[in-house]
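Incident log, support desk, overnight shift.

02:14 A customer reports that sequence design results differ from what the structure should imply. Their input is reproduced verbatim below. On-call engineer (initials T.W.) acknowledged and began investigating.
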């Protein structure tokens, strides 16, 4: 009777009592993967020491955080993935309810001692505490890294420059016979994936991520490296608006100053003001560019040549004003001599007028015809005196007029010719220089 009842109970429950219940802990107990067991993390996980461990490495770019030309520092935020085979770990998923993988703390297993050779600052970002193991012994470890690395930058074409910064990843201890690095994605796939994951670029535009291998020989040992080259291009709009265009505007103002009259001091003061403004922009450029560079940056050449042209224009204005001042002094000296002669003639006419007044009584006795002639002669002398006064007034006013308005001497003509020739030279030089600079920037 009792066996029959037991059979009925088993039939009613559907036989669930015979199903096996599995957990990840069972897998870890089977592998003896505990914190007390340090066998899995002491040495490279191979059954035969002649076997090398192949590490499949993939690096993708998340964001470009900073590019500092002054210190030649490249700061990308990357995603890195490593996969390698642990020959000491495997299990049959059928024995553990179909479990094909398990996550464990990363300190329980051996990990490749990979390092970034260009890294100059320890990564302070949050690290992934776990790694993943599948039933075949393939271990996967992923991590996000904020890399602060050195980069040899060429700022010759700043701000229209393109930079290529390398991140070299390799083992610090294991040589080629022990560890083999293999890229999980080629250059085209890595570039495509990085563009899809790209979150922020800022001033820089991401162009390409290329992958190559390199052999480093040190102490008679060869170490394999994977070199990831990040090619980025600067967006120049901000520097063009804030720096290049203001200097070009100042150059245009200096060209326009040639149409200001030379006899006044406004032209000289205007040129000095523009020159000081260029000096301030040069100080700003000094804060942007690195102190050391293989080639002189084109933007530095741009500023120096324009500064030199403006300085030469200022010196030319000083020379023109000096020549015109000498010409004015010579004309003033000649005018003074003419004035002395005019004064002598005036005194002579006054003396003649006095003699004429003294002899008026005698003219009363003359006939009518003689009297008329004397009246006409007296009126003509009065007109001559008025003409002399007008000439003196004209000479006095000429001292306050510019040489261009009043006419000058030989030095004034030389100054005018020099000014015209220098203006043609100035415009021609500026156009040729800007054309060559534009060709160099775009080449």
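02:41 Re-run completed on a clean worker. Output:
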């Amino acid at each position: 009777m009792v066996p029959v009842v037991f059979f009925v109970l088993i039939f009613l429950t559907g036989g669930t009592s015979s199903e096996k219940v599995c957990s990840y802990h069972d897998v870890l107990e089977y592998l003896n993967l505990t914190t007390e067991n340090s066998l899995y993390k002491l040495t490279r996980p191979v059954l035969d020491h002649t076997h090398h461990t192949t590490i499949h490495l993939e690096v993708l770019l998340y964001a470009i955080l900073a590019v500092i030309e002054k210190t030649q520092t490249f700061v990308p935020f990357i995603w890195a993935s490593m996969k390698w085979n642990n020959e000491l770990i495997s299990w049959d998923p059928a024995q553990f309810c179909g479990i094909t993988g398990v996550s464990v703390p990363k300190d329980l297993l051996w990990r490749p001692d990979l390092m970034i050779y260009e890294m100059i600052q320890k990564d302070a970002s949050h690290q992934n505490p776990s790694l993943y193991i599948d039933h075949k012994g393939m271990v996967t470890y992923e991590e996000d890294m904020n890399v602060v690395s050195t980069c040899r930058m060429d700022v010759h074409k700043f701000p229209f420059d393109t930079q290529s910064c390398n991140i070299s990843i390799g083992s610090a201890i294991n040589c080629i016979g022990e560890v083999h690095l293999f890229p999980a994605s080629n250059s085209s796939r890595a570039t495509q994936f990085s563009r899809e994951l790209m979150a922020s670029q800022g001033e820089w535009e991401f162009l390409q991520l290329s992958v190559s291998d390199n052999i480093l020989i040190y102490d008679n040992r060869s170490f394999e490296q994977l070199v990831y080259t990040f090619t980025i291009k600067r967006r120049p709009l901000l520097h063009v608006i804030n720096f290049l265009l203001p200097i070009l505007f100042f150059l245009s103002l200096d060209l326009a100053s040639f149409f200001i009259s030379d006899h006044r001091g406004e032209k000289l003061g205007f040129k000095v003001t523009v020159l000081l403004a260029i000096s301030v922009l040069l100080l700003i450029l000094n804060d942007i560019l690195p102190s050391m560079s293989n080639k002189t940056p084109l933007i530095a050449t741009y500023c120096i040549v324009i500064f030199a042209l403006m300085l030469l224009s200022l010196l030319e204005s000083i020379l023109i004003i000096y020549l015109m001042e000498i010409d004015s002094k010579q004309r003033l000296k000649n005018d003074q001599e003419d004035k002395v002669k005019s004064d002598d003639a005036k005194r002579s006419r006054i003396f003649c007028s006095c003699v004429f007044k003294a002899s008026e009584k005698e003219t009363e006795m003359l006939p009518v015809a003689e009297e008329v002639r004397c009246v006409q002669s007296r009126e003509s002398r009065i007109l001559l005196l008025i003409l002399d006064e007008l000439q003196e007034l004209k000479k006095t006013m000429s001292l306050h007029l510019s040489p261009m308005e009043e006419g000058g001497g030989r030095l004034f003509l030389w100054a005018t010719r020099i000014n015209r020739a220098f203006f043609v030279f100035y415009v021609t030089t500026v156009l040729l220089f800007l054309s060559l600079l534009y060709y160099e920037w775009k080449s």
